[in-house]
Amino acid sequence: MKRMMLAALNQAVAARETAALVTVIEARGRLAPALGTQWVVTAAADRPPVGAWPPAAITGAEAEMQILAELRQAVAGREHRTLRYQLPDGDMALFVEVQTHPSHLIVVGAGHIAAPLAAMAKICDFEVSVLDDRVQYANRKRFPTADRVIAGAFRTELQALREGRPMFDAGTYVVLVTRGHQYDVESLLELIDDPVAYIGMIGSQRRIRAVFELLEHECGLAPEKLDRIHAPVGIDIGARTPAEIAVCILAEIINIQRGGRAPSLSHLLRSERLTRLARLTI
Question: What one-character-per-residue DSSP string does 68-92 give?
């Protein structure tokens, strides 16, 4: 059983999937025999726990389903938790020890904002990938701390990143800081349907509106898909220098990652789009 649980945890790490080792740390009444039992659970609803599930003496499918749903919520939240239950069979406390992989930041574009953004993200324990089609920008000299620096065509290399490892997941954050809107369009067409946690795009409101109109009217992208793009990227801290802009971008990413309350710069533009769409449906 222990070997099966270890294999399940290793498999989750290899697949960049968050999993948790759950331990019964308190058990009273008819649940007392379950004390110390363990199992591994992921956030995937279609994947059963591995190990001693359900705990001994729990009666009733409803209680099992409730506990399992709350365990999966804890895994999705990526934080250790202690869950306590008062059941007809007795009292029980579970410690949920979450095993997670580092969040992954993909910086598309290797210009003057990308360098401080990649460095700061690494300090904040992100796995960092930097991509640009210009080898004079995408190189180790400019990005010494990044986990990978890739020189090549934007869309081609994004495809290769996806195929090489499961990197486009709920722990992935993508920031577009390219030198032109045509590269933003290329990258967004490749990324927009991936289950990443965040897509941010730098640019003036005029540039962003131009990109959105091109995606919607010429590329046939559904308008509601554009609402997941954080553009203009970042939180309004009055940033001016490349390093300050990098701070405001990383602040927005952490704000989303941790469930913070700071308003994003993209809020106004998103509200305008939703208002326009609402008028078109009336």
Answer: HHHHHHHHHHTS-EEEEEEETTEEE
Share of the chain above pLDDT 90, in %: 47
Alpha carbon distance 99, 42 (integer Å): 10
More confident residue, 202 or 100: 202
pLDDT number for residue 154:
95
CA gap 153, 197 in Å, rounded: 23
Give this prediction's pTM: 0.74
Domain extents for the chain? 2-99, 104-281
217-226 b/e (C-beta count within 10 Å ≥ 16 → b): eeeebeeeeb
128: three-class secondary structure by DSSP: strand
Q: What is the pLDDT of residues 210-257, one digit of tens each?
A: 899 889 888 888 888 888 999 999 999 999 999 999 999 999 999 998
Q: Show the tokens assigned to 258.
A: 């941790």
Q: If we measure between CA atoms, which residue out of 143, 99, 98, 141 comes closest to residue 120? A: 143
User: pLDDT tens digits for 158-182?
Assistant: 999 887 655 688 789 999 999 998 9
Q: Are 18 and 100 in contact, with CB atoms under 8 Å apart?
A: yes
Q: Which fold has domain 104-281?
A: Rossmann fold (3.40.50)
